[in-house]
UniProtKB/TrEMBL annotation:
Highest rank taxon of the organism: Eukaryota
Source organism: Rehmannia glutinosa
InterPro entries: PI-PLC_domain, PLC-like_Pdiesterase_TIM-brl, PLipase_C_PInositol-sp_X_dom
Name of the protein in its database record: Phosphatidylinositol-specific phospholipase C X domain-containing protein
Sections of the chain in a coiled coil: none
Domain Phosphatidylinositol-specific phospholipase C X: 51-192
């Protein structure tokens, strides 16, 4: 018992120290960067507002959501706080400005996060279709993967093609250098990541797992995650030279050996430092490598942070 209490005291000290490290860094270096003062007049149509004829796919800093379809996960006030990473529906996230969705499914096509379940993936598709019908020039990256510990839904590739066939942007390495207008009226880059089933075929309507990469570390320590994100981003080639999407997730995750197990208070340890992360990527010389930037509990300021840098790139200021 005494050893357990001592360990918890040390954990709390470590978290407190790491939170202070980020506070001090923000006070020292700030959060300004090219485009940081930009706010899109219409977040629902922010790509359209930046001129689809000019903006290339590899110039975009894509605002994304982590564990996107968890707004209704589990049982309210019972299990939901331990797995909920977003409070908005998929449609509301897209309307707010998110353009990358992270969807986890199990064998029966229900969305899940670990052992906790949510609605059918049909709800995700319906919300996406609604958003696409209400907009004209917004491109969405839809990543769907089989959750760890679960089996692939049978014939899921066919399901995705049947549901989204008319709007799917086929896998093609040339897509990264094309403008949004070049791709229209196609609207969705769908990355399907099965655990055991065959990967999508080259040139087909679905993109394989190698086209969306990240370097996830499972920690609740905010400065540790911040610096890990920086390190791995710095190891990437510039986005203009890559033929895959690279994601940085501005999140931290509850740990079993820590008394705070609810997602919201844990991820809030790093959530407010998204703008500082972008500013630091400039200070360290690799802002040109930032591409997909994801968060828990997405809000308008996070979207503006990404869209502002995208605008600066399009204008030749970054």
């Amino acid at each position: 018992m005494g050893a357990h209490v001592s360990k918890q005291v040390e954990r709390r000290k470590a978290i407190s120290t790491e939170k202070k490290t980020l506070v001090d860094l923000k006070q020292t270096v700030g959060s300004d960067y090219p485009g940081s003062d930009y706010h899109p007049p219409d977040r629902k149509n922010w790509m359209s507002g930046l001129d689809p004829d000019r903006i290339r796919i590899n110039q975009i800093v894509w605002p994304g959501t982590h564990d996107s379809a968890t707004n209704k996960i589990g049982i309210p006030l019972v299990t939901r706080p331990f797995a909920q990473c977003q409070s908005l529906s998929i449609y509301e996230q897209l309307k707010t400005g998110a353009r990358v969705l992270d969807i986890r499914v199990q064998e029966d096509r229900r969305v899940c996060h670990g052992i906790l379940l949510s609605y059918s993936v049909d709800v995700v598709i319906a919300d996406l279709k609604r958003f696409l019908e209400e907009t004209h020039s917004e491109i969405v990256i839809l990543e769907i993967r089989t959750e760890f510990g679960h089996d692939d839904p049978p014939d899921f590739d066919k399901y995705l093609e049947d549901q989204l066939g008319e709007v799917l942007i086929h896998q093609d390495d040339q897509v990264f250098n094309r403008t949004i207008s070049d791709l229209l009226p196609k609207r969705v880059i769908c990355v399907w990541k099965p655990r055991k089933s065959a990967q999508p075929k080259p040139g087909g309507p679905l993109w394989g797992s190698g086209y969306l990469k990240d370097n996830w570390i499972d920690t609740d320590l905010p400065s540790t995650k911040f610096e890990s994100n920086m390190k791995h981003l710095g190891e990437q080639q510039p986005a203009a030279n890559r033929k895959y999407f690279y994601r940085v997730e501005n999140t931290v995750t509850p740990q079993a050996d820590n008394p705070v197990l609810c997602v919201k208070p844990v991820t809030d340890r790093i959530r407010d430092y998204a703008r500082m992360f972008i500013a630091q990527s400039f200070a360290r010389g690799f802002a040109d490598r930032l591409q997909i930037f994801s968060t828990d509990f997405i809000d308008e300021d996070f979207v503006d942070a990404c869209v502002g840098l995208t605008s600066a790139r399009v204008e030749g200021k970054a």
